[in-house]
Amino acid sequence: MRFRWVPSTSDSVFPFLIGLTEFMLIDTLGPDEIGQWLLLLAVVFSLMNWVAHTTMRRARLDSDNDAYFSTDQRQEKSADLPTARYRTHDVLHTTT
């Protein structure tokens, strides 16, 4: 199921800002500027996370997306996902 999303001006501006920051990351590659590189990497991750959350928040406010964001729908989707659970007993007592 998909949700309706109406792009805004920030949806056009932020990808360019993230791309510019990624080029700055490339420019600061090297052992001399590791502090700047790590700072720019943190900026890229923060920007991408903020943009994704902002987009989803705006989509959640649109009443056309109520079916997508309903709690019942989310529970059904999470029930379909495979779970990776390890039982300690099985891992510790396996025979090879």
Describe the model.
This protein has helices at residues 9-27, 34-61, 66-69, 71-80, 88-92. With 96 residues, the protein is mainly α. The chain has one domain (9-92). Helix 1 (9-27) runs antiparallel to helix 2 (34-61). The longest helix is centred in the middle third of the chain and has 28 residues, at 34-61. The termini are far apart.
Distance between the termini: 44 Å
**Overall geometry:** elongated
| Gyration radius, in Å | 21 Å
Major pleated sheet: none
Order of helices and strands: HHHHH
Number of strands: 0
Strand content: under 5%
Structural class assignment: mainly alpha
Integer count of domains: 1
What's the topology here?
Layout (H helix, E strand, L loop, with lengths): L8 H19 L6 H28 L4 H4 L1 H10 L7 H5 L4
Structure at a glance:
By secondary structure, the chain is mainly alpha-helical. Helices cover 69% and strands 0% of the residues.
Features:
5 helices, 69% helix, elongated, 96 residues, mainly alpha
